[in-house]
Each structure stands twice: as C-alpha cells, then as structure tokens.
Design goal:
The complex is a heterotrimer.
Chain A lengths: L2 H4 L2 H16 L6 H27 L2 E4 L10 E4 L1 H28 L5 H20 L3 H20 L5 H30 L4 H7 L7 H18 L8 H7 L2 H27 L1 H7 L2 H21 L4 H22 L2 H32 L11 H4 L1 H15 L5 H15 L3 H26 L5 H8 L12 H19 L1 H7 L10
Antiparallel strand pairs in A: 1-2
Helix pairs in contact in A: 2-3, 2-5, 3-4, 3-5, 4-5, 4-11, 4-15, 4-21, 5-6, 5-11, 6-7, 7-9, 7-10, 8-11, 9-11, 10-11, 10-14, 11-12, 11-14, 11-15, 13-14, 13-19, 14-15, 14-19, 15-17, 15-18, 15-21, 17-19, 17-21, 18-19, 18-21
Chain B lengths: L1 H6 L1 H19 L3 H23 L24 H32 L4 H10 L4
Helix pairs in contact in B: 2-3, 3-4
Chain C lengths: L4 E4 L2 H18 L4 H27 L2 E11 L2 E7 L1 H28 L4 H19 L4 H19 L5 H32 L17 H16 L10 H4 L5 H35 L3 H21 L3 H21 L3 H32 L10 H4 L1 H15 L6 H14 L3 H27 L12 H19 L7 H13 L4
Parallel strand pairs in C: 1-2
Antiparallel strand pairs in C: 2-3
Helix pairs in contact in C: 1-2, 1-4, 2-3, 2-4, 3-4, 3-9, 3-12, 3-17, 3-18, 4-5, 4-9, 5-6, 5-9, 6-7, 7-9, 9-11, 9-12, 10-11, 10-16, 11-12, 11-16, 12-14, 12-15, 12-17, 12-18, 14-16, 14-17, 15-16
The chains are: A mainly alpha, B mainly alpha, C mainly alpha.
Chain lengths: 502, 127, 498
Amino acid sequence: MNPSSLVPFPPLIYLFAGIFIPLVTLRWRRLAGWLALTATTAAAFFSVINLLQVLKQGIIPYRFGGWIPPIGIEYILDPLSGFVITVINLIALGVIVHAHQSVKAEIKESRWPPYYALVMLFLTGANGIIMTGDFFNLYVFLEIGSLSLYGLIAVGEKKSPVAAFRYLVMGTVGGGFYLLGVGFLYLVTGSLNMGDVRNILPHLQVTAPLVVALTLMLIGLGIKMAVFPLHGWLPDAYTYAPSPTSAIMAPIGTKIGAYAIARIFFFIFGIRLITQIVPIAQVLAWLSAVGIIYGSVLAMAQNEIKRMLAYSSVAQVGYIGLGLGLANSFGFIGALLHIMNHGLMKACLFLVAGNFRLKLGHSRIDRLDDSLRRSMPWSAAAFTLAALAMIGVPPTVGFFSKWYLALGTIASRNWLFLAIILLSSLLNAVYFFRVIERMYFPWRGSSQKRTLSSPAPKNESQEVSLGLLLPTLIFALALIVVGFLNVWLVKTILTKALPAGF
Amino acid sequence: MIKFLLGHYAYWFILALLVIGLYGLIIKRNLVKKVIGLSIFQVAIILFFIASSTKWGATVPVLTDHQEVIQSAAYINPLPHTLMLTAIVVGVATSGVAFALIILIYRRYRTLNENELLERLKEDEPE
Amino acid sequence: MVNATTYTSLVPLLTVLVSLGAVPLIILSSRRPNLREFWTIAAGVAKLALVVSLLPSLLRHRIAVLNLGEIVPGVDLAFKADALGVFFALIASSLWLFTSFYSIGYVRGLQEHKQTRYFAYFAVCLSATMGIAFSANLATFIIFYEILTIATYPLVIHKETEEAIKAGRKYLAYTLTAGVFLIAAATWTYLLAGHLDFIPGGLLKNIPFEPKTAWSLFTLFLLGVGVKAAIMPLHSWLPTAMAAPTPVSALLHAVAVVKSGVFGVIRVGLFVFGPELLRRFHLDYLLLTSASLTIIIASFLALKEDNLKRRLAYSTVAHLSYIVLGVGLISSPALLGSLLHLAFHATMKITLFFCAGAIYVHLHKEKVSELDGVGHVMPWTMGAFAVGSIGLVGLPPVNGWLSKWCLGWGAVAAARPLYLIILILSGLLNAAYFFPIIYRAFFRQGETGKTGEASLLMVVPLVLTAILSILLGVWPDLGFKFFKIAHEVGRVIFGGVS
C-alpha cells in the first residue's frame, strides 16, 4: 500500500467515527463507548505506522483528490507532525479506556452517544490541525475541535455551561483572529498552502500586513494554547467539565495550539523572521515566562484538585511557549518533549482526579484525608508519582524536559528564564506536596473530620476498579519509562523534527 | 493621505464592524447581546476576505459556455468567497452552540445578565 | 606512576539494584516482620559484599566502569568505581549493615508504626547513595542525588507528628532548591565543556574562564551541594530533621545524606573544577571561609543545645565543614584528611547517634540535662559515647585524631596555619560540648528507675562501631584499607607522594 495514502487515516477515522456513532447507537446505546475505543485504537495504530514510515523515508505529503498544491489541500507527514499526532492519539487511547467508567458515572446514559461522538470530533479536529498543510484547513479543524469541546464541557456539573460559554466566546474570537491573520497572509503571499508560503516569504519585503498576520495568528492560536494572558477560559473549563472531558482536554487541547504555533512560526515563517525581523518569538517567550509564574502561584491558592491542575497547566504551557520562544534547538526540543511529557503527566493527574470524584464524590483538597492511603492506595501513588514528575525529580520525564529547557535558556544566555523555570519547580513542589501531605499524613484535627467525610471502614480498599486503575497506572509508569527513553526519543525522532536553520 | 483613507474605505468599515463586535462582546452584559457581538465580529472578518478579493472593474467569476476566458485577472478572486462559505457555516454552528448554552444557562440560573449570573455562581460556591 | 585501567563490570549497577530489589520483598513481607528484616539484612550483606569485591581490582589500579546509554543529551548514565567512589560506598554500605540491626532494635523497642515503609525507603536511600558514590559524571550524580532527596523524605517525616511534617517540609524546601541550583550548574557546565564526566584534576580545567563566570558557576555548584553538606547558612534543615527517628538521623544524617553532600563538594571541587582552577580564581577562599565560619559557629551552637540529638546535629554540621576545609586547602595531605574524616566521622557520629537512640528507647530521655547518672545504668552505651566523643575531639587512639592530624598537616603544608588554629579551637569546643555529657553520665547520680542496657540489637552495633573507631585509629587500613584508598584519591588528583 502506498504509504502516503495512510497519512490522512487518523483524522478520517475519527471523523467517520464521529458521524457513525450517533447513527449506530440510535438502536444500541451502549455501543457508543466501544465504538469510540475502536476508533481511537485504530487511529493510534495508524499514527504509529505513519511515524515509523516518516522516520524511514522522510516527508510524506498527501494530496486530497489528487489536486496538487497550491490548488489542492495537502496533508504533510513529517517527523514533527508524526511525533505529535502519535503522542496525542496514544494519550487519547489511554484516556478513553478510562473514560468508559468515568462517563458512566458522570453523564446520563441518554447522552453517551452524542458525548462519544463529540469526543471523536474533538480528536478529528486535533488530528486535522496536526496533519494539515493548509492554513485555512487548519482553521476549519480548529473550529471543529473547539466546537466539540464546548459541547463536551457543557455536560458537566451545574456551572459547566457558563464555563463552556466563556470558552466559546474566547475561542471563537481566537479562531476569528487566526482567520484574519490567514487573510492578511493570503493578501501578501497569494497562497494558503504552508509549503508554498514558506517558499514565497523570503522573497517578500516585510510589510505591515505580514507583521499583522503574524501577530493575529499568535493571538488566535495563543488563546487556544492558553498562553498568558489569553488563558482566561482555562481554569473554569477544566474545573467544571466532567472528569472524562477534563482528562481528554487537558493533555491534548492546549498542545494543539502549541503545535500550530511551532509549525507556523518555525517551519513557515522561519527563525530569522520571527526573531530578528519581527521579534515575536521574544514576545512569546516573555509572556510564557510570566505565565509560568502566574500559573504556579495561583495553583498554590487553589482548594480543589482540578482547579489546581488547571492553573498548573497554564504554567506548564508556559514552559512549552518559553521553549519555543527561545528559538534555539535545545529549547525547541525541550518544548516538543514537554508536549509529550506534560500530556502524560496531566493525563495521569486528571485520571486520578476522576478516580477521586468517583469514589469520594469530590476532589477538594481540604476534604482529603489520610484514609486515602488505605482506601485508594494505587490512585494516591499514581498521583504522587505524577506530582514528582511535575516537580522534575529524576528519573521521571519532568526532569528531562527541564534539563533541555535549562540548556536552552543558558545557550541563549537568558538567566532570568533559567531562574523562572527552576523556581517554578519549587512552586510546583509546594502545591503538590500540599495534596500529598493530606493524602498520607493525619492532618491536625482530622480525627474529627474523619467520621464525616470518609465512611470507608478502616482496612477496606475502596480503590477504583481495574478498568479505571489500569490506564492510570500505565500513564504513571510511562512517566518513568519515557524518562529513561528520552534521549532515544530525542535522537530518533525529535532531532529530525527540528526546523531548518537550527 | 485622503486618497489612502478613501481608497481603503471598505477596510475602515470592516475595522469599525470588528470593533463594534468586540465591544458588544466585552461590554454588554446580556449573554444574547454578547453572541450578537460575536456574530458581528465574525461577519467583519468575512467581509474582510470578500473585500480583499474584489478588484476595480472586475467581473463576477462565473464561467458560462458562451464566454471565453480572455484574462483571468478580469475576474474577482473567487477563492476567498469559497473560504468564506465555510466560515459562514462555522459562524452559524458557533451561534447555534452558543444559543444552546444560553438556554441551558437560563434553565439553571434564570438570568441572562452576566452580573447577576456571576452573583448566582458565587452563591453556588460550596459545591 | 601507575596509571589506572578500566574494565567493564556490572557490579556498580548491582550495588544500586540489590537494595532496590529488596524493596518489593520488604513490602510483601510486611506481615512477617522477621522475614521482612531478613530481606533488609540480606540486601545489606549482599551490597557490602559487592562493594568489597571491587576492592582487589581497585588496589591493582583497575577501575570498574559501566555505561548504560545516554540519559541526557551528550551524557551517559554511567558508573565508575574509582577510588573516591569505592571509598564512599564502603563507608555507606558497611555502616548500613550496622544501622539495619540497630534499626530493628529501635523500631521494635518503640513499637513504631509503619515499620515496613521505614525499611523499604531505607533500602531505596541506600540504593541512591550507591548510585551517587559510583556516578561517573555530573548527570548521573544529579539523578541519584535527587532520588536520595525524595527517598529520605518519608523517613524524615516518619513519626508523622506536626513537628516531623514541618521538618520534612523544611528539608524538602532546602534540598529541592539545592537540586535546581545543581541542574542549572550542570547544564551550564555541559554547554561550556561539552561533557560532564568527572575527571581528576577538573573537567573544566582547560576552559577559558572569566573570573565572573568562574565565581558564578562555582557558587551555583556550592549552593547545590552545600545544602546537603550543611555548609552555613544552608545547614538549617539538619537540626530540624532530628525530628526523624534516631536510626534515620544516624545513618542518613550522619552518613548517607550529608556525606553525599560533602562527597559532592569533593567531586565539584576536585573533579569538575580542579585544583588549578580553584587556585587561579581564588575559589578556595570561598570554601575555606564558609567552612571555617561553619565550624566555629556550629560548634558554639552545639554548646547551647540541650536536646542531645540537636547537639549532635550541630556537631555534625561542624565536622562536615572539616571535610570542606580540607578540600579548600587544595593539597594532598589535606585531601587525605578530608577523606579520612569522611569515613571516621561517620563511624564516630553513628556511634553517638546510636547511643542517643538507645537512651531514648530505654529511658525516654532526650535532653542532656536529664542524663545524670545514665552511665551507671547503661555503661556500655555511655562508654561507646565516650569513645566517639574522644575521637571527635581529636584525641588518640580513636580514629578522629588521625583525620584531624592530616587536616592540620595539610593546613601547614599549604602555608595556611590559620586553619590549623581553627581546627584546634574546634577540638576544644568539641570537648566543651561532649565531655560534660560524659561527666554527667558517669560522675553524677540520677534517678532513672531502670536498670540494664537497651536491647542487644541496639547495644551491640554501637559498641562495635565504637571499637571499630578505635581500631581504625590505630590501624587505618584495617579491613577495607581506607588509608590506602584515600591516599590513592589524592595521588590521582594531585600526583606524586605526600
């Protein structure tokens, strides 16, 4: 089979699943979850195959309908897109296995088919953004993914439609800005194809429309990525969404924005343009740095696990933005590595939060007590491991992201950024250890609370079932395994994913 | 200077629409009005693309059997138009989702005013 | 001059793995304490045997190495059992064996809770310590160093009282902060030198430096290793960490954690920067000044402390800086003194901590002022305490005199007699805070209400370590040839004979 024909499989599989599920499940509602799982497995499988192919042969384009660019729409499979899409689909797979029971617990049965359909559409959007080689096509998939996500958020608890509405407003404005940016870019270059534009840009004079295009795209995609100060939608959305939605949204949603920025800035506009001519990389770096501190500090003030993780995500996205903004090879690799690492860490953390919701009925920090140590030992352990990864303790993955980013900041002589990255590790330690302490140690005065909040008898395990536990533990284990493999991953995949000019 | 202002009158209009849309979105308290602002914002972007595709003295890009294409530059650029068809659909879908959310919010909180909503959300706090 | 050759061996990795492997066994045997303790002891014996097995080859100048593949860009996860590494590993693993027996007596005597967690994490800590000892480069070192930080936390907060949890927080705050400084320093070093291997004489030796850069980098490193090495003002976590059970204080905070810190100082000073760079940029003054201040101030603070363990903690702070002082003197005899003190202080301090623990378990006394007449009740224990104290003051025949003498000689040889004076002064201060304890114990009467020693499981180890301290003072090459190995380290770095 022609390898290039496998390229569009991942997004297409999700698209068809998204359409198929509501139809089939008119009759058999419970099939929805299984269909989603099948689709995700297939998509993950093809992503891996695509990745292996591209590592062997180099860039593989796919032309829809056989129309050659710039007339037709093109999908490009290169090491960068192959890597990111594989990471995202594998994480999605783990989350969807977990979602099976999580959805059962938090969402009405009549809504399962549309829920899973929306999940499929969200993943369609994500995959499409990653694979596409056309600016407008990116907008289309951006909107597909975002609209699905608004719906996925809104089926949560009482406040969720408000959070979804806020996200909708910000997200649509973001999409609009991005589209406007595309418009300006089209005005200036006459093409919508990414490769084409890349070839045309060096010959152009840098005029106002070009700068505007760049800025608008950054704002638009920055909203999606939740770069400070465009992150306002994130805390509420992550907190009030149902647990399975948070679990799928947190590791994936913001990464797509990051990928798009990486692609457009580095592979199309080129390093010279974004650093020297229009210092937009520096802007991204500075905003990200502020975001790191802002997110870490606010996370310390939170009382509910999901909200804490939400602010933590703002900070972590800041790492990625900082890595990109440094515009050197260490920073870029660090950012890519962190896309994967943070995805794994946050997936694990949100799965545990979901487990807590399921078994304890809440995920508030001040109502946790050390009965968890006995009643949910595995979930607590997974949380602790993921927390250590977020703090950056070797040999977990978090340490290696920080190593690369530290190298990146030193290489560009940016000591303030180095200090910020390292300082945030310590801030992470503060807010994570708050939870760890609560989970493992008897808290002052908790003996009174014990009778109220934890009805579990002393030695009985209330741990979640295997279907939920297994993905949680696999993600946790991955945090160490991938840590050891980090250099292999960097050498075989990521160094090939570097843009020209590094 | 005047020539620049007058020559680009379409873009000034579009800019005004953009700002009006954003204004409505941010300043107005009623959720429905926010969505209206959002729609205006999206329309402004659509008009931007359309405006950028027009040319002085060019004709509608419709191919018929009778005419031959003498110079393609005599037709206005059809590509942005097709793109905007998609964008319009996206806008419609967005508005649809937005209104669905508004209905849901109204059912739960009995208000569409952002200030009141925030107050009622705060009351809900101990969850 | 004989040059060392290397040979590939799994042994360094095995020393790390053997106690890690014991961890699941310990956890699984939590219902059968004797079986569980058996695993701890077995792992300890196995580990010591493995480390000792490296000795013959080392003495023939053959160094075991093992490379496990790249772990960060350009740097491998690699082990190298050089003289310094084997030296440290020998101390840690042999003292672990003593501590394991002692721990069993201690936790059973107090009927401590969570014994399984205790023994399990203890095993992990020792794995990490082995990893630190045998690290061939900075990256491997940092990885195990951080693992040690995290693995010691559950032991520090073991009692789970409010005091313990606060101590744990302080401990983590200090050590994690130090960790990030280390990462900064290491990544910077990598960008300067292109690799991170520990090279005797300094991996940065040939890098052109400006004074500002050299000082910044060295300070970063010092902040990184200085916390565990308890150099003032980074020492504050150590007295607070005395909230941990005594065996934890004994092994970890007298042997493993803090000695990892000074081990790090030695590695940084002599294997990363190297004597030449230290001299050229006068970085040795940073070491000498901070060490001297620490020695004096900590000794005075020890005088003021009534809590026995905290007094011992401040004493540790002071003695650790002896080792740092020796590094700062940049000479072969001084380094010999440092290394010997690393080993000998360990044996002496562990004896003292063991005694403190035995007193606590048996008589429930924690304060110096309560120790009147204890010597009559627990003569063996207080006898051992006396031995340890004598050694720390620096008097023969206990081994402390030998390391101190070498340090003093090193000060003179480096033409810095000031530091000799500091050492002597410190010896007097040691006497001032130790001898009154012995006096109280033996020459005063107290009401204790109990007779006899604490459990044999505790008393035997502490007597053994005391005897060991005496024997090493007379014959320093006893058993593990500490003197010879320490000498070797100096030779490799400085060349020539002292």
